[in-house]
Fold these 2 entries.
Entry 1:
Amino acid sequence: MVYLSRHPDGHVSTFHMLDGLPDEVVTARYANGNVSKAKHTLISGFLKGCTFYTRQEAAAIVDADRRE
């Protein structure tokens, strides 16, 4: 399952953030409702088209492109 990073108002974020995650992957929240912990199985990454890349995979692609 892929969850896009979203602002609390539902707009897609341009950076990684926890506050827009659905309740099924959130394990704790601060008193103000912001996410303080997410499931340890959650993997941060990026989508390009329909392909998901972990942060490490994306970094490796950027490094390879720089070498060319």
Entry 2:
Amino acid sequence: MSAFPQLPAPPPLQKVMIIPARSIGTIVADVVVEEHHEDRTTITRHPVEGSTGVATISDNAVDEPSEVTLTYGWWPGSTQNSGTATITVTLPDGTPQTMTGSFSNPNFLNAVYAQLLDLRSGHVPFMVYTGRRVYANMLISMLSVTTDKDTENALIIRVVCQQLIIVTTTTFQLSQNPAQVQDPQTGLQVAQQGQQNVTATPLPSTAAFQNSLSAQAAAQFPFPGEP
């Protein structure tokens, strides 16, 4: 009996990048009509000190929050608007019969619109997945829906999402001991100098002040014939 031929080793598993569906938060779009990305930087109009190409302008250019405008669509026959249900009915002879069938929500379009309205009014940052970029910490700044003869049986909605810039702050507890407190401008420790006495010097009287000016003027500009 001949031995079985040696089969080749299976190829190694390859990593596959799974691209998420186009979605606003957890709301997945059926149709992508348009995705418009916009990033702006506000640059100072005043002159910046420095030589050409080496000027430090980090304090004179500020990146504005990213903004993306999404035009998405949904329709009643969407795969998202389908499911299965199992029901039990009783036949005329009294025998129970289990039936399984598919169903769809007749208010699917209004339900999607209501979810987007709740997402806008909830003011909770969410993720946005587009065909070009993934956005984090986004909020809806505008929703626009137009229903006409072409979109009566569909939902075409324009959503404007703006990025929310989130920063973290750190607090420090200052010491109550004056010897351990530092000057915030110099960073040097402020030492306790004890009690200081201030002595005010009295101003001369008006007559004494005028006599002093007259004596100084006579010394600098003597009359003719005087030594």
